[in-house]
Fold these 4 entries.
Entry 1:
Amino acid sequence: MNGFLDYVRSLPKAELHLHIEGTLEPAMLMNLAEKHQVNLPYLTAADVERAYNFEDLQSFLDLYYLGASVLIDEDDFYSLMIRYLERCRDEGIVHTEMMFDPQTHTERGIDFSVFMSGFGRAMEDAKRQWGQSSLLIMCFLRHLPEESAFETLKAAEPFKSQISSVGLDSSELGHPPEKFERVYAAAGQQGYRLVAHAGEEGPPTYIVEALDRLKVERIDHGVRCMEDAELVGRLVKAQIPLTVCPLSNVRLCVFGTMADHPIRHMLKRGLNVTVNSDDPPYFGGYLLDNFQALHRELGLTMEDARQLAINSIRSSFIDEASSAAWLDQLSVPTP
Ligand code: ADE
Ligand code: ZN
């Protein structure tokens, strides 16, 4: 019996920062490697887990792209997605906005139609079977050139009705948001909502650039804003959502330990913070595990958790009626 965890599970929550390729569990990775005869430097799932010992973002990304290489046919993408959506059902995540990395697959010769149809079929099944609400965020890999992002935007056209938003992920340092200013302008014109990773490893100026040049509505991570008081003031005033991922931040050494994580200061300062799991099996836990770690190591209270759930619904891209209904359940008076 865990009162805090049961309480958090019972709160209707949105998860807004989750890479679907980053939900690949070691056991599934090994099964798919065998299915497709992909050569990996691991013999067992335990070897995979042992390798998940990162010193920075790049050391994680190297293994994340290696892992994604076992995703090949439509069924693989279906299985990956349905497992995560089942997890949402079990953790009280009533709505999720999932990032995917098309270039990781198209670069290996896997067509958009393969992954989009696997993802779409799973999202429809989850919607029909238990009412799961979900959206997709298509991310550009920032270590690749602008031209490749434009090609990806073009290749996505036939699947546009399945994609709500555009995002930016992968190696942050050395790849500032301004590199993608033109492709973001084009995506915005096509009606995509805009988000971007910024201020995970990159400096606070990347957050400013993401807001001013990419015109994003939400910042993924954003934790390094705390180094710039003026920026914090701006983020508080505009209530820009920050999709913070505590276990990820600690595993990627953005902060030494969970006790050093600034999330409670961020909440106290009035920042619009949400809690998310990023790449759960790589970082040691799904959404409830993140809440549990914050409770255990930082003294996150039930009232903090309720505020975080409210922030997640408010910061999501779901329709207004659903948002109002979830906020009502969280005892937020409708204005
Ligand atoms: N791709 C998957 N997880 C990521 C993260 N935390 N930062 C940047 N790119 C990512
Ligand atoms: Zn991320």
Entry 2:
Amino acid sequence: MSSHALPNILLNDFSNDTLLRLPPNFYKSLKSYISNKDIKKIQKAYSLAFYAHEGQERRDGSKYITHPIAVANILLDLKMDTDSICAALMHDVLEDCDVNKKDLIKLFGDDVAEIVDGVSKLSNLDINNRSERDANNLQKMMLAISKDVRVVLVKICDRLHNMRTIEHLPRSKQLEKSKETIQLYGPLALRIGMQDIRAELEDLAFRCIYPLRVSMLESAIKKSSGGRKRIVSKIRKELKRHLKTNGIATVGVKGREKNIYSIYRKIKSKHKPFSEILDVYGFRILVDSVDECYRSLGVIHNYFSPIENKFKDYIAIPKSNGYQALHTSLLALNAFPIEVQIQTRSMSEIASFGIAAHWQYKTQDKDVNTELRATKWLSGLVNLEKHTNNPSEFAKSIKTDLDSDEVFLFSPKGDIYALRKGSTPIDFAYEVHTDLGDTIVGCKVNRSEVPLNIELETGQTVDIITSKSNSEVDPSWLNYVATSKARTAIRSRLRKQKTSDARKAGKIMLESELKRAGSSLSEFRGSSLKKILDSIGVTSLNTLLTELGLGKRTGNIIAERFYSGLQIREGIKKPNPVLIIDNRIEGVSVRFAKCCFPIHGDSVVAHSDTEKGIVIHHKRCKQVKPFLDKDSRYISAIWGENKKAHLYKVNIDVNTEDKVGVLSDLGSVFARAGINIGSVITKTIDKKFAGFEIQIEVENKEELKNVMQKVRSMKSTTSCKRNINEK
Ligand code: MN
């Protein structure tokens, strides 16, 4: 299908001249219950759809516009409201044409635009070959995306028309669509209580997938139907007569035809032969009031003998999808088992049309908006639930599905995961697998990279990027995970990480001490190592290293013990400094002190801190300078070449003349240099001058020098210097 440019005049000026005449039959159906003013709106929707799809064709060669009209017609049969009809007419215009949601809002209002947009979103879900668990989640997901039940209604009617015309698709597509219909759209229709549409959808799909089974079933039904018809008509007359003589006058009794897929499903699920399933005759009795339902039941139980344990009162306790009726099984004419359903007419209507029945346009209460009516219905269902012992799953599910506290997400393979609302990619990773959470380093949502703390939305595809070598859990993650699974996993991982970090830090410290004697840990093995450990009073080298790293023991004292084991104490040299690359020393991640903010190129020292692991300070930082020579927990460190363009935070103090726009001028200097500003603290110095403490992120000293030079060269700058917490 080619994208098609709309005549601009259509979007800007929808006047009577641009409106097209509605097809006569369609107009006639509209006329039956929709006001002239609303028909105008529908005419507008029709015109837009017509122009948008102009030149596009269906598979069978007919004009594309015939499809949206057919979908709108199905909704008309359900007596749906104007906005649904408009949305049905335009349900494919966002997909294939040059129209966007904003246009629709402008021309038709929020409701119509939301429905069209929702239907497009549902169409974009890739829903083939799902497992059953997924199919169930997918139904919930579709309802969650929809927000408005009318989205699902339009989508189901769209699918119904596509199934009615499925013979024009290639065979592989036919099978794909049919499977999807059985797995997803049938149950979805049932979920919102639309039994008739569900039956038709499933029959169409079943016919398409198993043509042979269908023809066998049909011929079997046909064979038995001659005698069957006579019996049905005889029993029907009997029932009617008995009811009438007992004063239930306005009554309809119908023989029920089962749809072919439901017969097939019964054969499969109950493992009963075809004859047994078909030999049960079904009848439906329709009366005017609930009272008459129960009286009818009494009457027929009086004349035919009921089969034990087969009576069900779905009027007092409705089924989960809102279905109400009395069900009973009896032996009619002493020979034939029959199933009887007794309902009021409105119960029967709801059973057929489900939510749509509640949405039906009623001219007398035009001012009650449709949204309200549906909400009322939903809350009605919830109230029903309170008065019954049988938890009304449907009421619960619809209610929570439309206003879901869950988000439904796809993995790249297409599996669906349900997570709490507010979940982030980290939650998602831990939900899929603990290993995935533990090694997460990044994330793509719908193929573009996003930060790990964004809130995920239903329908997104989440692709977790992992790295085995560079996987460290960040304590700050605890602030933005929503699931307890992720929280627990992060906590336990942090505990492990802390000891393993401490152990690594301890090793670096001890090695750097031993180097002074030209030795290294690898020289100590077996019994000689054990002797040293015994003399220190620890059971294993790992324990010793961990305690060292945590600052519970002092490096040079421990080193002394090792020297004595070596029995060589010639010329103890200065240790070689450790190498900092990005934010790591020998693979162990380090922190940069938040007092002096050292950056690449500074003269620095590494300090092993009990709580924080290894922390890098500027050598002139007042926190460390006095202790450098006295405390063995300071290890000399130098910078290696960075591998990953790590950014270091740094604080600079800028004083300027206090003029309008001076801060934004400063900002643009950093922006032009491609440097991020983390924070700015403004201080008024006096009437003439202002001071700014600015935190920026730089790769190295060189970059800092250059940008400070630029700041100094600004006219209004009086001073600019770096703050390394010296005095
Ligand atoms: Mn369509």
Entry 3:
Amino acid sequence: MNGRPPIARVSATARFLPDQVMTNADLERLVDTSDSWIRERTGIRERRIAPDDITAVDMGERAALGALAKAGLEPSDVDMIVVSTATPDRLLPSTACEIQSRIGASRSCLAFDISAACTGFLYALSIAEGYLAAGRGETILVVSTEKMSSIIDWDDRATCILFGDGAGAAVVQPSRNGEGILASFHRSDGDLAPLLQRPVGGAAKPLTEESLRNREHMLLMKSGREVFRSAVRSMAHAGNMVMEEAGLDVDRIDLMVPHQANSRIIESTARYAGIPMDKVFVNLHRYGNISSATIPVCLDEAEEEGRLVPGSVVLMTAFGAGLTWGAMALRW
Ligand code: COA
């Protein structure tokens, strides 16, 4: 393996999933769909749904505190908090500032949100890596928290079957013993924004009674098929670019952690990358697509299950609205 020595490592992860389970059978009672259609077309069996009184900040706070505890750190040790979310509690101020206050991180820390939809966790890890590379801090908290149920049109069977709620967090610190980010590749294509968006509710088109009635402030997916094709193509390409940059042969990958949107997307992406499915982490059947929280939740579960141990090489790939996509190879 060649490539540059890593700068930043993930020293701990944690997750929070709400208790309430929504099964495909529950969805059959809401829209014209069936358990068999959802399982065959997506691989999803159930997802978690947060109750009204648990928000993205609440879930992010719990994941953040969990990750700090596992790393043996205090909130006062954190130099920067980067939050990725498509479902902030409010538009201003950022979810990150609220999480900073909740966890009691000190005022010498800076906190901000990024908007990169499902790719947000990988983008945020790269921002953390850059901040460490610039010598501006030692401990960065990346939090991905998503209350997707709050932006879903529960009458739209094309989207309401796909998503779930949850949060994941990672502590990012300077590398040691060759552990950390080996290579990354991130891209976006704003020309494809109309494929997946919330058309109304921003400054360009503020909410009106009519748009509320028409649910135009909810998540709208134009063509599931096109999103599907773009997801496979872009994640496969990003994964290959990362393996090439890190000088990693495919058999050096111990675990692939792809974004969990659809089992057929996962299988096609793994096939393109040449990675057998027994090396691919999948929890989609239990949680659906938790947007940017997907990858940190997978990492945390993979470590707990012993599928990630110190020295393991993990290849992560993600894809989402924007469109955005990316991949990252990391030695655990
Ligand atoms: N239940 C039952 N039937 C459904 C349905 C549902 N929940 N959703 C769509 N259908 C119907 C369609 O209306 C269509 O019917 P028609 O043939 O009579 O017109 C048929 O199923 C096929 O629809 P299509 O969209 O072509 O199915 P698909 O095989 O592409 O699967 C997705 C649809 C959404 C599951 C799939 O395209 C996908 O996962 N795309 C990626 C979406 C995604 O991941 N978005 C988030 C990115 S981060």
Entry 4:
Amino acid sequence: MRTVYVNGEYLPETEASISIFDRGFLMADGVYEVTSVLDGKLIDFDGHAVRLSRSLNELEMNNPISKADLLEVHRELVRLNEIEEGLIYLQITRGSDGDRDFAFPDPETTVPTIVLFTQNKPGLADSPAAKRGAKIISIDDIRWGRRDIKTVQLLYPSMGKMMAKKAGCDDAWMVEDGFVTEGTSNNAYIVKGNKIITRALSNDILHGITRAAVLRFAREAQMEVEERNFTIDEAKQADEAFTTSASAFVMPVVEIDGVALGDGAPGRVAPRLREIYLDEMRKAAI
Ligand code: PDD
């Protein structure tokens, strides 16, 4: 049984609880982060901590924990649950003032709820899915306008994942005004020649922590990076495509809406970026 962290306490998962009035539960009024663990160490903890602060600020929510303490909790959960490869899920909600109301409760008297738990995933880095590549479908992006904030409002992305599954695919890319925004839980890229193309940062997409690192490594490896919009049709004609996320690193995409990219197997660029990313991030892990 896992040991989880709730509001300052380490508890067996079956003994951990929060209020039924918690605004995370009632209103999806909360933010989250997912940090990966390789070799028992945290990948890009700093990036996730910085984005967490930003998400909280954007929603005028107090941060209940310092960065140093947050690092300690992450490390303690890795230790207690003996995680070599896996994920740490962190959620902070606006808490509960003991009732349901659309207006935010007084931040002076309502403390945020903080929950962390681990997900053990042996073989996360050496994933067969990454060797095979993902098949994706495209769906309309009908999410709200602040996708840069990492909120727990994940119903539509979950529905998108189910639409993909029903179509016999792995995931979905979302399209708005004709252009791809991002995947259900990852950022989206296409490759044409030596050029990596991905949508520029704005409120339309999550500012991926993996995205920042991968684009840095790509530029360091003399690959050309173009941050601009692209359509699903352009993606179908690309040499390669891939996604990035803390939970799947760099994942090649081999099929879009039934159209195979290249020869239908992972190409040259995405597997190379995956390897560079894993090597460099293992070295920098804490
Ligand atoms: N999802 N875009 C969306 C919509 C996401 O949900 C995620 C991450 C990303 C990639 O961000 P990062 O590289 O910081 O993980 C992009 C996490 C992994 C999840 O919901 O499980």
